[in-house]
Known about the structure:
Layout: E1 3-5, H1 8-14, E2 22-25, H2 41-44, E3 51-56, H3 64-74, E4 82-87, H4 97-112
Parallel strand pairs: 1-2, 2-3, 3-4
Amino acid sequence: MPLLQCEGVSFTALAQDRPKAVVVLDGGYFLYPPPAGGDQADFATRLKKPVMMVNGRFDSVFSVDTAQDPLFKMFGTPPADKRHVEFDTAHDVTERRAELIQNVLAWLDKYLGRVD
């Protein structure tokens, strides 16, 4: 269970014993008021697993300064096990599919072991 979307931050934090590594695609801190019990800030600091967050540098949904960086900094993962990858895309990083796959597989190989 290594791949989770931004909404999965709370789930991942609660299921600490299950994932060995986390990949967050197109994620960021929600700027609008979250539903009761759904504020990522309440959960992100509890996430201690290795986490890579992949975003678009020109994302209009989750801007780098106000949404991506704040969520990334909130993760409770040790700095050596956190990585923020930014592509020259808008919100949908799958526009850079080949680079996305390369980065995600390298991350998962590092923490889950290489598959031959």
